[in-house]
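Aim 2, interim progress: modelling of the ME8-bound target.
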Amino acid sequence: MNEDKFFITTPIYYTNGIPHIGHSYSSIIADTIARYQKINGKKVKFSTWVDENSQKAIQKAEELGMEIMPYLDMMASKHKAVWDGLNIEYTDFIRTTEQRHRDLVQKVLKICRKRGDIYEWVYEWMYCIGCEAFKKDDDLIHIDKETGLKVERPVSGKTKAVCPDHLTEPQKIKEKNYFFRLSAYQDFLLDFYTKNPEFVVPQDRFNEVIAFVKRGLEDFSISRETNTFGIPLPHPPFDENQVAYVWFDALFNYVTVCKENQEWKDDSKFWPADLHIVGKDIIKFHAIYWPAMLKSAGYELPHQILTTWFFTVNGQKISKSLGNVIDPVEFSEKYSKDLLTLYLLSSFNIWQDWDFDEKQAIFTYNAKLANNLGNLVNRVVVLSLKLWWILKSSKDILNQVVNFPIWSEWSVTTNLKSVFINFYNNVKEWYENYNLKLILDESFSFLDKLNKFADEKQPWQMIKYESKQEETRDILFTIAEWLRQVGLALYPFFPEKIAEMFVKLGLEKYAERLEKWELEKLISEKPTFEIKEKWENLFNRIEIL
Ligand code: ME8
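Predicted structure of the complex, ligand included:
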């Protein structure tokens, strides 16, 4: 395993619509983890973009009366605008209609066929376009045709069988297809899971995957005869007029970006992927189909899959027809990208379904970023400017045993330096375990303590007495150092604002040094805060209307 690189991916998104706030969740998580890995010294590759060869997109283009390629070009640039608008720091973009991807998928199809893993079969099944997946009777639910409400049992003529996620009737298909011999990979997969006990995070989801595989696997179709758009199966060895099933094509995007990167050069050193981020809806494809397909094609398998849960808006599934779609770029322009990141990543666990609430998002931002962090930075800057400009510790304050009462919850033998080192060791572990919520929670609770400390000591009063100026300076230094440490932990979440905070605190070139992987050095460095001027507030409060 190459320890110096980190290859992270988001799902590639369907282009029948523009990414909404739900999609932005996966990309913001990926972005935060990628930024952490970068400052932590890894060479990061971060790929994302669009899954184009889907029937949904074709249907949408038809609805709009557009030719498919102009439609896809338009959607690809709209998707890109969303990720750029949210300042997602991807390194690789992939469209599945690109020639490089078509070449790779065709190459892989030939390899899998040669290995005997692909065979022909005429079959009859049901297909849900919403999921782009084949369905069996057991996968469907029954709803009343008139009310649309779910019923326990079907009633002839009155109910219909629909996909539980899309509430639409699947298409009935009978055609000659090529099948991938997934059933032959059951033992291989179970053995792989045993040897890689952290392959899927969280464990509960992994247990479900393992149980599913243990029940026995069925082969799945990897081609469509009736589709006219998509990657053609290479002829020979395959028949003419068959295109690859969208999932067989889409999953290989992760390999394409390594084998044929943006400049179409070989970037193989990044393969295998270190982390795939996927919603719980597509875990089956990633944790079961994908390793088997890779094994068949002769590639190494990815290290880990992080499964994220879903959120609703106003208690409802996000959907255009319900009118609750939130555009993440408009939302962050209205408030701020930091508000969006903070709310999405701090209010709910990645492994929990939840409901998005705009007011709650503003409350969280005001409490944590505007008050807790922003006000404190402001206080230190304003007070320091009154007297010294340069804040450095008069004594070796960081190595002294803590004797301020507010810190009584830490051992009296603890000095500030070890408090910070301990804090950052935890932060690192949480980043490695993708526990982003805990990093935010603990950072803001650390800042809460600091605010309490400031309120108790009242440096703004002390500063008035000449005899207490030395002590005031130590207190301000302590607060500034504390802010610096929390800033290092929070940088991957709010890179622009934290960089601004470092500048306000008189710490030159910190963002630059972080981007040059100097995190470790910065954590243990003894700083001098050369506070030079009063700036605008770091975070302005937002009024709730
Ligand atoms: O499935 N809450 O693309 P897709 C949280 N093209 N996450 C959400 C969400 C919500 N309400 N809605 C969507 C596809 N997501 C395939 C992927 S990968 C080889 C192919 C996120 O456009 C979540 O991560 O339907 C989900 O898995 C992804 O968007 C699905 O995006």
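The pocket of ME8 is lined by residues 11-14, 22-23, 25-26, 51, 250-251, 253, 278-279, 281-282, 308, 310-311, 318 (CB under 6 Å). Residues 116-224 form a domain with the Methionyl-trna Synthetase; domain 2 fold (CATH 2.170.220.10).
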